[in-house]
Amino acid sequence: MMKHILPVLATLPASGLAAPLPPLACHGDTPDWALTLAEETAQFTFQRESQMTIPHQTSAEGRDWPKAVTLISRNDTAIVIIDNLACNEAPYTVHVLTQRGQTPILLTGCCTAME
Q: What is the pTM assigned to this prediction?
């Protein structure tokens, strides 16, 4: 399923991004996962660690938020949706859609800007 969605997202223009995201550190519990996002790369840890590239970022049509980020590696893909809604003590809420085999997985959590 994700392998069909990602080519469509890959055709979206990066110019839809109103303002670039700062480098972010994201995480979630139950299940535990972690994600760091830099300008063009990401590290995603969920059941295994993946070094990923960020080929595209965009914002919702006509809005600054939420932002969508496409992640691709040799073995994994993910779509990350980040919103500027507070999440516990963090300033951003995050949703990660990925898969293991044919099983889609939706992870939720919080992000903070890295310094």
A: 0.82
